[in-house]
Every structure is written in structure tokens, then in C-alpha cells.
Amino acid sequence: MFEMLKRWFGGGRAGENGAASAGGEMISCEKALASLYEFMDGELDDLSQEAVEAHFETCARCHPHLSVQRSFRTRVQAALSRPEVPEGLRNRVVDLLAGSDSEI
Fold first, then answer.
1. Where do the structural domains in the chain lie, given as residue ranges?
2. pLDDT, tens digit, for every residue of 18-33?
């Protein structure tokens, strides 16, 4: 709960934008946002991943960008996962489509 409050009110370690990596080095909002998709995909090296994560955990301006992208990705994945079609229905559709080719 405390971390969320810090994030929303811009708290955290002192610095230009309130975000620091685990080692204390600050990364800019621009660098964090430029690395957003690689961060979400786990494609950054360990140090960069930690620095970007620390930034998003403490920066009130950048955290909403991460939240929106995670939400968007979750919704797209949910929309893409469709239930399997029963075999009987699939066969009927294939048969109907095969029959329609001869009528064209």
C-alpha cells in the first residue's frame, strides 16, 4: 500500500523525477518509457530491468503508462484466446464452404 501511495504522489528517493535504480543511479523518464516494451517482455539485461522497474515503481508520471500498456496487453490476449470450436461444427462449416465453391 505504501509503495502505491509513493507512486501516485511522486515519492521515493530524491532526484529529478523521484525514481532510482536498486544501485541508486537515476534513470530518466524518457529512458524508462523508451524501454517500456522491452521491460514488459523481459528483454532487458538484469541491471536495466531493475533500473526500469525501480523507475516505474516510484515515478508517478510514468507508472500510469506501464499500467495502461499492461491492461491493453491483457485485453488483447483475452480477445485473442477463443474457445475451441466443436469438431462437428467445424466439419459442417468446412462442408458448407466446400459446397459454396462449386456454386461460384
1. 2-103
2. 444 445 677 999 999 9
